[in-house]
TrEMBL record:
<feature type="transmembrane region" description="Helical">
    <location>
        <begin position="156"/>
        <end position="178"/>
    </location>
</feature>
<feature type="transmembrane region" description="Helical">
    <location>
        <begin position="88"/>
        <end position="108"/>
    </location>
</feature>
<feature type="transmembrane region" description="Helical">
    <location>
        <begin position="7"/>
        <end position="25"/>
    </location>
</feature>
<feature type="transmembrane region" description="Helical">
    <location>
        <begin position="54"/>
        <end position="81"/>
    </location>
</feature>
<feature type="domain" description="Phosphatidic acid phosphatase type 2/haloperoxidase">
    <location>
        <begin position="87"/>
        <end position="199"/>
    </location>
</feature>
<keyword id="KW-0472">Membrane</keyword>
<keyword id="KW-1133">Transmembrane helix</keyword>
<feature type="transmembrane region" description="Helical">
    <location>
        <begin position="184"/>
        <end position="202"/>
    </location>
</feature>
<dbReference type="Pfam" id="PF01569">
    <property type="entry name" value="PAP2"/>
</dbReference>
<dbReference type="InterPro" id="IPR000326">
    <property type="entry name" value="PAP2/HPO"/>
</dbReference>
<keyword id="KW-0812">Transmembrane</keyword>
<dbReference type="InterPro" id="IPR036938">
    <property type="entry name" value="PAP2/HPO_sf"/>
</dbReference>
<feature type="transmembrane region" description="Helical">
    <location>
        <begin position="120"/>
        <end position="144"/>
    </location>
</feature>
<protein>
    <submittedName>
        <fullName>Phosphatase PAP2 family protein</fullName>
    </submittedName>
</protein>
């Protein structure tokens, strides 16, 4: 019970931070623009131009088509090996990502940065759909792999792989000029909070499912 409360507390704190950033974006955007632009300029100015192609590849992993493909393949694979709760976790987070990203973009309607975009990006800027979707979908896969992999060394390697991928996707959006840093930060925070909110429910149902299978 205490562990469940801890997850809900983290989720609530993350949601509070997201609301604070969102409130600032909606009503006092100028207070963030200067800081955002400075960070964005520093990131693009610090990294050599040779990494542009690398980030163009990385950002594809956060595209809607890629995320839909990852969710579909993962759900089918998990159902095939009878990991029903794992499949439900990935599917639920994919659905939540799609629903909330569209809703919040329409709510805040923040224009994208005015600097040169190195990839095409339509629609509004806040929050970053790539950041939030990656946190939810790849974060779900991280949870599943961490629970299912028995080797501690392999656990750490897979965890590091997913965390690095998620962070690089977020960084790519800033570097490519299609999101402000606060867009990416807000997307990460909201996705992180949702993961912590859903995880206790998933873990409990997963335990109950395994117990029922043993009873049979």
């Amino acid at each position: 019970m205490k562990n469940k409360q801890n997850h809900f507390l983290i989720a609530s704190f993350a949601l509070l931070i997201f609301v604070m950033i969102g409130y600032t974006v909606k009503f006092f955007p100028e207070s963030l623009t200067s800081l955002d632009s400075s960070i964005q300029t520093a990131i693009r100015g610090t990294l050599p131009q040779s990494v542009t192609r690398f980030f163009r590849i990385i950002t594809v992993f956060g595209n809607v088509t890629t995320q839909l493909l990852v969710v579909t393949v993962s759900v089918i694979a998990f159902l095939f090996i009878k990991w029903k709760m794992e499949a439900l976790l990935v599917l639920s987070n994919g659905f939540v990502a799609a629903l909330l990203i569209s809703s919040f973009k329409l709510l805040y309607q923040r224009p994208r940065p005015s600097i040169e975009h190195l990839v095409y990006a339509g629609g509004f800027s806040f929050p970053s759909g790539h950041a939030m979707g990656s946190m939810l979908i790849f974060g779900s896969l991280l949870i599943v792999c961490h629970q299912r992999i028995k080797s501690r060394l392999l656990q750490v390697a897979v965890d590091a792989l997913f965390v690095t991928l998620i962070l690089l996707i977020g960084l790519s959006r800033v570097y490519l000029g299609v999101h402000y840093p606060s867009d990416v930060l807000a997307g990460f925070i909201l996705g992180f909070g949702i993961l912590h909110f859903l995880y206790p429910c998933y873990d409990q149902k997963r335990f109950e499912w395994r117990f029922l299978l043993k009873q049979d």
